[in-house]
Amino acid sequence: MNEQPRTLYWIFLGFVGLVISVYVLFPVFWLFLASFKTQAELAQLPISFWPESPTLEAYKALFSPTHQKGQLLDWPQLIGNSFFIAISSTMIVLIFGTLAGYAFARLNFPGRDLILGGLLISRMFQGAALLLPTYRLMSMMGLQDSLIGLVLLYSAFGLPFATWIIASSLREIPRELEESAMIDGASRLQSMVLVVLPLATPALITAAMWHFVGAWSEFAFASILLESNENKTVTIGLASFVELFTLEFQYVGAAATIVALPIMLVFFFGQRYFTRGLLAGAVKG
């Protein structure tokens, strides 16, 4: 008797989710399709949703040093800077987050749980409130307009959450496995690297994905710290592109697609690890 109301409930939730998805994703999908249109096709009436004559001219223009769009914004340089910042800071966060997470999960010291909870709470204070003090601090340290400075900044911001994710996962791994390896002659470092970390792979991938996506798409701190064109990132380039070419949506769409592509690839290949990593340690068994 209760099956029909439950079925209707899930159908209703699915319909609501579908409506919200269409509402959110439709402008994104339209901008993606616009990148394959010409300016004339975008300006014609009535508006056509699908490209009538798909073209890659907008993408070619971004990477062409002879085209006006490619001359004003060096997109290969922007992409290279973003990859350098995102990958470098992700590696730093993963290495130090793993060591810190292992310490919180395996070592007993005063205030351990309080400090671990404080790391998570610290994420509440990121954002616009930290822009001015961060700018002054980076200027005093001589790291303004520096890719290395942005790598260190993103690493500092990403380390607390990565540590919390990894520590929560490591706590679910039985200590007996590690102790058995140490009885067989392995050191603590060897047992951590060869026994514990392979079992914590979903959490490690989750921490890496979370930080990479955040570092790749971050705009606020990059916009106030990076001034020279050779140091700017893709998010700054996209914002400048919108200001420069507001009416030429095919170029804006191409640039937005390039910015979003790495994020989509990361979640496409790591989705199953991402879900498992977030849930690790959430339920006590």
Structure, explained:
By secondary structure, the chain is mainly α. The chain folds into two domains: 3-58, no CATH class; 70-279, MetI-like fold (Orthogonal Bundle), CATH 1.10.3720. Helix content is 74%, strand content 0%. The protein contains 14 helices and no strands. It has helices spanning 3-34, 39-43, 57-62, 68-72, 75-106, 112-121, 131-140, 147-170, 175-183, 188-199, 201-217, 220-225, 234-244, 249-279. Helix 1 (3-34) packs antiparallel against helix 14 (249-279) and helix 11 (201-217) packs antiparallel against helix 14. The two termini are 33 Å apart. Residues 281-285 have low confidence and may be disordered.
Concise structural overview:
It is found in: Cell membrane. The chain is mainly α and 285 residues long. It has two domains: 3-58, no CATH class; 70-279, MetI-like fold (Orthogonal Bundle), CATH 1.10.3720.
CATH architecture grouping of the largest domain: Orthogonal Bundle
What profile does the largest beta sheet have?
Answer: none
How are helices and strands ordered from N to C? HHHHHHHHHHHHHH
Shape: globular
Estimate the mean pLDDT confidence: 81
How is the topology of this model organized?
Layout: H1 3-34, H2 39-43, H3 57-62, H4 68-72, H5 75-106, H6 112-121, H7 131-140, H8 147-170, H9 175-183, H10 188-199, H11 201-217, H12 220-225, H13 234-244, H14 249-279
Helix pairs in contact: 1-14, 5-8, 5-11, 6-8, 8-11, 9-10, 11-14, 13-14
